[in-house]
Amino acid sequence: MTQTALRVLAGPTALAHIKQHGLQQADINVMVGASGGPKWFCLFGLDQYLFGEFFAGRDKPLHILGSSAGAWRFACFAQADPLAASQRFCQAYSHITYPKGADTQLITQISAGIINDVFPTEQHLQQVLDNPIIKLNLVVAKARRLSAARSKLLQAGGLTLAAGANLVSRKHLQYFFQRVLFHVAGESSPFHYAGVLPTQHVALSPDNLRQAVLASGTIPMVLNAVENIAGAGPGLYYDGGVTDYHFDLPFSDSGLVLYPHFYPRLTPGWFDKALKWRKTNPAHLHNVLLLCPTDSWVKSLPFGKIPDRNDFKLPDNIRIDYWQQVIARSHELADALKHGNFALEAL
Asked: 239: closest CA among 307, 155, 143, 168?
C-alpha cells in the first residue's frame, strides 16, 4: 500500500466486522460530527464523497448526530441536495471575515449569515424535517445558573466555575449547562442513553431548526446566546460542544457508527480540552469507525497543521488562501477511502 492520507481506527466490534465484511454503507446506522470550528475543512472532501456517492441510493434511515460545526455540516446532509448545501456552507464559512475590533453583536450577525447560506429558503428547512433517510440530530447547551448571566464579567465567572466543577467530575457540568438534543419529530432516535449528563429531547420543527443549528455553534464569550428556542423553553442557548465537544455517548445499539474526525483521539467536552486524562469511555466506541487524516498528511499542509480558530489571527488573505488549499486537498482523504487505500487500526 502506498503512503495514505487516511487512517481508519475501529473499535473491536467494528474492526472484526470490517475484516470479515469490508466497509459497506448499509452496515452503518449512525454518523457523528464533532465540534471544532474550521478544523472540519480537512473533512470537506470526505463529506462530499460520503453523501455524493457512498450513501447515494441508501434505503434505510441514517441517524446523523452533530454539535457546533458538526451540526452545521450535518444540517446540509439532510437537504435534498446535500452536496450543494455543503458547498454553500464551505464557501461561506471559509471566506468569512470580521472587521477589526468587532464586538460580539457584530460577530454574531456575521456568523448568523452562514446559516442563511445553509438554509437559503424555508423549503430547505422543510427538506431536513421531511427527509425519509437522513435523520438530523444535533446538540445545544442550555445555560443554567451563573452560566446564564448576560454580562460578560458574570459569564466569565460562570464559565470559570463550570470549568472547575468539570475538573472534579464531568457529571458536575450539569449544574451549569443542560444538554439539549434536537431530533426529527416522530422518529425513534438511537441516542437514548445520556451518559453522565442528563438530556432534554426536543423535536425539530420549522420554528426551531434554524435557531437550533445556529445555537449549536454559538461559542460562549465569542457570540451572543440564542434566546428562547421554540419548543425547548425560555433561556440562553450555546455551543453544543460545551457538553459534547467530541461526544462521550453510546451512539447505537446495533450496526456501525461512522465518525469522520480531525484527530485520532476524542475529547468528551469543551472544558476537557486541557485535561489530557479525560477520555471517552472505551465501551462507547466498540462499534465506531473513526476516519482521520494521517500525521504525515497533516504535516504536508500549509503551516503543517489543519485549520483552527487561531487562524483568525492571520491576515485575512493569508488565512483564506490557506483554508482553500486545505479544502482542495481534503479530497485526498475521500480518494483514499474510496479506493481502500487507508491504514486500518484498532481504536
From this structure: 143
CA atoms within 13 A on the CB side of 342: 26
> CA angle, corner 67, sides to 63 and 72, nearest 5?
85
Would you say residue 194 has pLDDT above 80?
no
According to the model, what pLDDT value does residue 1 have? 46
Contact 240, 67 (CB under 8 A): yes
Cell numbers found for residue 169: 467530575
Handedness of CA 241, 247, 249, 253 (dihedral sign): positive
How far, rounded to the nearest angstrom, does the alpha carbon of residue 332 sit from its chain's CA centroid?
Answer: 21
- Quick one: cell of 271? 472544558
| pLDDT, mean of residues 120-124 | 96
Task: Convert the pLDDT of each residue in 26-45 to its tens digit.
Answer: 999 999 999 999 999 999 99
CB 147 within 8 A of CB 176: yes
For 26-93, the DSSP string reads GGEEEEEE---GGGGGGGHHHHHHIIIIITTT--S-EEEEEETHHHHHHHHHTSSSHHHHHHHHHHHH
- The DSSP code for 304 is G
Q: Where are the beta strands (DSSP E) in the chain?
A: 6-10, 28-33, 62-67, 134-143, 177-183, 199-203, 226-227, 236-238, 256-260, 288-293, 343-346
Residue 187's pLDDT band, with cuts at 50, 70 and 90, is: low
